[in-house]
Amino acid sequence: MERKHLLLVFLLVLAALPMAPGMPVFAITLMNYIGLGALVAIGLVLLTGVGGLTSFGQAAFTGFGAYTTAYLTTVYGASPWLTLPAGMAVTAASAVVLGLVTLRLSGHYLPLGTIAWGLSLYYLFGQLEFIGGHDGIGAIPPLTVFGYPLMDERSIYYVIWLCVIVAALMTINLLDSRMGRAIRSLRGGAVVAESFGIDAGRVKLAVFVYAALLAAVSGWLYAHLQRAISPAPFGIYAGIEYLFMAVLGGAGHVWGAVLGAGFVVLLKDGLQRVLPQLLGMQGNYEAIVFGTLIVLLLQRTPQGLWPLLLRLVPERRERPRPAAAAALPRRAAPPPDGAILSVDGVSKNFGGLIAVNDVTFAVRAGEIAGLIGPNGAGKSTLFNLMTGVSPLSAGQVHFAGRPIGGKPSRAIAALGVARTFQHVKLRPDMTVLENVALGAHLRGKAGMLRALARLDRADEARLLHEAARQIERVGLGEVMHRPAGSLALGQQRIVEIARALSLDPALLLLDEPAAGLRHLEKEKLADLLRTLRDEGMSILLVEHDMSFVMGLTDRIVVLDFGTKIAEGSPAAVRRDPAVIEAYLGGVAHEIAVN
Asked: What letters, b where the CB count within 10 A reaches 16 and e where it falls short, cover 257-294?
């Protein structure tokens, strides 16, 4: 059985379950609660498992959905279906406000922040008298379909699971898109995402709001299933359970959220029924056993249950090269004369440490320039200053005549500046094709709404076609669909170059591109860079392999302790006494002799 058949079997069983002979109502009730939990967990898969943003406060968003529909239907007699968009609007507004504050936090402060507002909203629900305080709201009308009230568990079952399936498919669509790659890039840190034009802050907020909206739908369904609500189901304990569902199912897998929700709901129910019989006394022992079992399970299966299930079915065969699509628009080449990059009196201080000291140089259009110096000379720091990763302490940087000092990385990338990194920064769990397509992010137009509805296929085809073209250009076509983390270090560096080329840059900044490459691979890389130069691209590279630099570059700038000590042609730099003393030494003599 293939994986698509496994999903089809699941959907058929799901559809037939309520109609099965002898199926008890209690089993349908459990399935309804599994569906409600799965809706929240799907949002957490995207937020936490994919985006790396841990939240313990999702139960509060279910409260917004539940209380909005309960209040509007009982006080104003509104139709339950009309209260769904109202609840989603209230939830979205709240999520934007909370996200703007919370998502500024990082590390362990982010989950602590979600706990803080999760607790605050739980107690707020209990204090507001117009929504019933701790007593809550009762007599909530049921959902109706074509005038038929969905009064019992069986009748509302299909509505709940239809919402789950739609949410899962929409989330899968989103992940298989330009915006989905942007979301996955967040786990690698904002530096990489911003370097290719992704607004990390906006992407984080969009994911946060999307997860909150799925939780609101769950709360809306819960209110019309129970027909009475109180603050109890929307507290921090419920928020922890939702996170358990996502993690146990497989934090990076959408259908794992459904599996995780089923596991948690069934385990809790089983413990509540079995433990009192085994122990012969009443008490909250199920919470103790539940917590212990969860810890043991996470130790045994840290990746979750869904990856274990996938091992039982065959892997899908490797996909072919992306289908041909219309070429993306190309950036106009800069004029062949004049400087495309000017660094004027740039300095960078870290407290009392001067990392870069009054450095001035230029990169002309259509040339390959080298930036060399001993370890700690300030080369990578200077790259970060030129690309907006770090702010300037003094001086200015101009690109194509425009000042870019102080601009964010994404704005500099939009102008046509692409880079690689000293330490490889790829998403190891994403394929080579997906990593390289990240570089083309700014060349696509489809946003989140089009991705959710899968209306972005033409745009996506062009981006993937461009990514495939660049991968084949650098000679890695045979590993296009392999996870980037499975490649050798040298190959990963080449993937970074392909990713940078997908931006269609006018200026390419390469930080130690030849590190880890064998001799023949270096020769192929040099040929590629010469071809790019001949096509009008300007290149500035940092490299420690002096033979590679001397044989490739048109001009070299030398740094030592953050200060420029030489600049000129390779031949002139090779003979410069200050360079020989500071950096090249015997290597320069050997090159000169040869």
From this structure: bbbbbbbbbebbeebeeebeeeeeeeeeebeeebeeeb
Handedness of CA 428, 432, 438, 439 (dihedral sign): positive
pLDDT tens-place string over residues 477-536: 999 999 999 999 999 999 999 999 999 999 999 999 998 888 899 999 999 999 999 988
pTM (global) more than 0.85: yes
CB 225 within 8 A of CB 36: yes
Find tokens 């079995």 and name the residue: 274
For residues 463 and 444, the answer to whether their CB atoms sit within 8 Å is yes
With tokens 């870019």, the residue in question is 404
Q: In what order do the strands lie in the sheet with 402-403?
A: 353-364, 339-350, 394-399, 402-403
> Beta strands 339-350 and 353-364: pairing type?
antiparallel
Q: Calculate helix-pair angle for 153-175, 254-279, nearest 10 degrees.
A: 140
pLDDT digits (tens, 9 = 90+) for 345-366: 999 998 888 899 999 999 999 8
Mark 458-497 as b/e (b = at least 16 C-beta within 10 Å): ebbebbbbbbbbbbeebebeebbeebbeebeebbbbbbbb
The DSSP call for residue 544 is S
* Runs of H (alpha helix) within 374-423: 379-386, 409-415
77-127: pLDDT as tens digits: 999 999 999 999 999 999 999 999 999 888 889 999 999 999 999 999 999
Distance of alpha carbon 497 from alpha carbon 491, whole angstroms? 10
The pLDDT of 296-317, averaged and rounded, is 80
CB-based burial label for 428 (10 Å; 0-12, 13-18, 19+): middle
Element (H, E) at 244: helix 236-250
Local structure of 511: helix, strand or coil: strand
Counting every residue, how long is the chain?
Answer: 594
3-state secondary structure of 566: strand
Measure the CA dihedral 533/534/535/537, to 10°.
20
How many helices (H) does the chain have, and how many strands (E)?
Answer: 24, 12
For residue range 423-464, what is the model confidence (pLDDT) as tens digits?
899 999 999 999 999 999 999 999 999 999 999 999 999 999
Q: How far apart are CA 239 and CA 61, in angstroms?
A: 10
CB count within 10 Å of CB 557 equals 25
Query: Dihedral (C-alpha) 251, 254, 259, 263: value to the nearest 10 degrees?
Result: 40
Please give the C-alpha separations between residue 222 and each of 36, 191, 415, in angstroms, as whole numbers: 7, 40, 49
Q: How far apart are the C-alpha atoms of 80 and 543, rounded to whole Å?
A: 65
pLDDT, tens only, 208-217:
999 999 999 9
d(CA 422, CA 425): 9
Alpha helices in 301-425 (DSSP H): 305-310, 379-386, 409-415
Q: Are 313 and 3 in contact (CB under 8 A)?
A: yes
In single-letter form, the type of residue at position 289 comes to V
Q: What is the pLDDT of residues 369-405, one digit of tens each?
A: 999 988 888 898 999 999 999 999 999 999 988 999 8
Helix 200-226 × helix 153-175 angle, to 10°: 170
pLDDT digits (tens, 9 = 90+) for 411-425: 999 999 999 998 899
